[in-house]
Amino acid sequence: MSTQHALALEDACSGYEALRPPNRMSVSSGAADNLVIQQPGSPKTPWSADETPYMVEPLDALSSRTIEAEVFVGPARTGKTAGLLLGWMAHNIVNDPGDMLFVQMSKDKAREFSKTDVDRAIRYSDNVRAMKSDRAVDSNTFDTMYRHGMWVRIAWPTVSNVSGSTYRYVGITDIDRIENAENVDGEGPLFDLAKKRTTTFLSRGMTLVESSPGKPFEDPSWKPATLHEAPPTGGILSLYNRSDRRRFYWACPDCHGRFEAAPGLKLFSMLPDDKTLLEEVRAADISAMAKHFGRVVCPHCGSMPEHRHKTHMNKGGIWVPDGVRFTETGEMVGTPMKSSIRGYWLGGVAAAYQSWESIVEQHLLGLRDYALTGSEEKLKQTTNTDQGMPYMPRHLVEAKGSGQTPRDRVEKDLRRFIAPPDTRCVLVSVDVQGGQNARFDVQVHAVGPEGEQWVIDRFKISESKRPGPTHDTFAPIDPASYPEDWDVLTDKLIMGTWRTDIPNIEIRPLGVIVDSGGEGGKDGERGKSGVTHNAYAWIRRLRALKLAKQAFLYKGGSTPQAPNMRETLVGKIGNKGKNDIPLLHCNPNKLSDEVDAGLRRQTPGPGYIHFPAPRHPVNNPDGWVSDAFFDELEAEVRGPTGTWSKLRARNETFDHCRMIRALMIHLGVFRVSNWDSVPARFAPLARNSMLVAREDRREQQRNTTVVDTNAPQTLYPLPQRRRARRSSVASL
Fold first, then answer.
1. Rg of the chain taking only CA atoms, in angstroms
2. How many CB atoms lie within 10 A of CB 26?
3. Do the strands 636-638 and 439-447 form a parallel or antiparallel pair, or are they unpaired?
4. Cβ contacts of residue 577 below 8 Å, gap of 6+?
5. What is the rounded CA–CA span in Å between residue 514 and residue 656?
6. Cα within 13 Å of Cα(392), Cβ side
7. DSSP result, 584-627
8. Which end of the chain, N or C, is surrounded by fewer C-beta atoms within 10 Å?
9. Pick from 316, 262, 340: which is nearest to 56 by CA?
């Protein structure tokens, strides 16, 4: 056959490429057969997994019919671009065609990726180049058409680029450097928008997102709930947490025990702590230090493999999902986490194209830069891109400290509802919550000499005294809209008691402090929520019942240098009215410092707070708080300027501790110089003035009538009141 006839036949058959069935082979095999890598100044090299064996499983997972997306977290120099992106593209073009979209961080990066990585892959990979359309109109910087109809597009994150089109394959690169990844032009997260583009293909579609960590890690109190859980940073790690959370595990060359090639510096256990290093790096020989400390240590036998062993360890490495662990004999046990998203997180120690010594050296150089200039940019960059870890700002690292947290020193024998023998008074704090889940959130502390405290109760009040939809139910609480709902605090707290170890003797609260600010509330005004207005009205009703001495209203200020506390009168009604409601104006920053100092104490004493152990189905089935209790306790952190800020929305436990601290200051707990000679309200339990016999308390509650003259009258009898129900904080 002449050359002319052969070309004519090839041209006639080219239209049938779209009908060719896919080649049934793994993605890693397809990448090895079809992708050729060539960088300027270096020879052409077929892609191979020999140097990056950790890429085989992530590559093969891209053709799985049981998952809908893949997340790969890894540092630089791991071969992500060549393996995951170009290898996947080459395999799809030759073996399993379908329209494909790559999303880069910007238009300039999209052009660069097209002109360098993609163009070179097509040019030097014969099988890929052979599939490219010969028509000039089918190729430009951002779009390439192939003979079988496959379209490869390279774009950037805009609504027009990631919405309204259908693709079988979508790959998002370096998502943590994309500024609008969390919300693309108001349409939603980039990952979710991209994933929707593939839903037409059902199980045959696939979305890939890869990046090194780039979002800041700002929660120094965080501890993983599972072995492979990632820190709460947002970005790529938040997507990883939605997956089955796989980590890469090595086998020790000496003891053969399995251990994780963990992100960060965990395996460099010879490396001193940063506090010590900061004192040495300014004058030290960084190269010599890196050579000395740049050795990973097996956590099982303590042996230190040399860097030349890394290739062998990588080849023998395996990806392990969350929920699975190794026994002492090397057997894998446990139940893998299930997810429609496959997730991989590779540590910098396993990266094929960087040495252990260089990881340590870059960290030391970053510390030197910080010690000399105060700049954290070098430290952040090397932590993210060399170690594969999210970066925690230095002021948060220092705030974290080295001691135990309250979560580490909980007490299983701390009983609920019962004041311990050393109690001198009981104080109650109330956090007013609005919105759809409106409630009074209550925490109770028993207080001993010098301000030592025991948390003895935590519950919510979500049920009012108003009739509900049926005659045998009560309406949900609404502190902003119904002034009479505040009378529940009178019944359950002001008139409430907590048990003691003395038979049939209970103790009344010396003080109940309530956050009166509310959402949108202002002093003397109803505000949007009405909380402040209703709080003042409640105090006036308590005054009529001669119970107002036990109740205190709290309001946090915003001036950093304001005193801890000042008491003022508020609540003027009209222009000619008179302020008659005492209000404790407090400096939340200074109070937070004092609470934090007590939380950091490792031994009981002044300001120390005893916490109950959280409920655990095996270790502590009788626990009466949940892990959320401690999450709320650790929800705020002190910034470099001394201002405290919230790390997460729920901070009620810490807020309660802060209000209790304010009440202790106001009542004079810290002014007592001799606890052997104190007023009756601070006396030991045996002679404390707040004690009451159980029967006397019940009689007193029966004879106390709370009347709100402004409350609407019901047209039918109210349902019979039930005893106050105190639900665990686990349900909050």
1. 33
2. 16
3. unpaired
4. none
5. 10
6. 18
7. EEE-HHHHHHHHHHHHH-SSSSTT-EE-BPBPBTTTBTT--B-H
8. N
9. 316
Rounded distance between C-alpha atoms, residue 488 and residue 465, angstroms: 7
Q: What is the DSSP string of 264-332?
A: TTTT-TTSPPHHHHHHHTTTS-HHHHHHHH-----TTT-----GGGHHHHHHT-EEE-TTEEE-TTS-E
Q: 691 and 506 in contact (C-beta within 8 Å)?
A: yes
Digit-coded pLDDT (tens) for 635-670: 888 877 778 888 888 899 999 999 999 999 999 999
Residues in the chain: 732
Rounded distance between C-alpha atoms, residue 190 and residue 157, angstroms: 7
Longest alpha-carbon distance in the chain: 116
Both tokens of 549, joined, read 């001495």
Closest CA to 543 of 585, 509, 580: 580
Nearest Cα to Cα of residue 514 among 655, 699, 375 = 655
For the stretch 16-63, pLDDT in tens is: 444 455 677 999 999 999 999 888 877 889 999 999 999 999 999 999
CA angle 148/151/155 to nearest 5° reads 170
d(CA 8, CA 4): 6
Name residue 176's amino acid.
D
Pairwise CA distance, residues 664 & 675, whole Å: 15
Q: Which two tokens stand for residue 254?
A: 């000496």
Q: Which class for 2: exposed (0-12), middle (13-18), buried (19 or more C-beta within 10 A)?
A: exposed
Contact (Cβ atoms closer than 8 angstroms) between residue 350 and residue 54: yes
At 158 the three-state DSSP class reads coil
Q: Which residues contact 13 (CB under 8 A, 6 or more apart)?
A: none
Torsions phi, psi for 520 (to 5 deg): 80, 0
Rounded to whole angstroms, what are the CA distances from 444 to 427, 458, 478, 509, 652? 6, 6, 22, 9, 13
Structure tokens at 504: 């049939």
Quick one: which of 28, 376, 390 has its CA closest to 234?
A: 390
Stretches where the chain sits below pLDDT 70 are 1-22, 399-403, 518-529, 558, 560-561, 701-732
Instruction: Please report the domains of the chain, with CATH numbers, ordered by start residue.
Output: 20-211 (3.40.50.300), 247-400 (no CATH), 406-630+656-701 (no CATH)
Give the β-pairing of 324-326 and 511-515: unpaired
Q: Provide the whole-model pTM.
A: 0.71
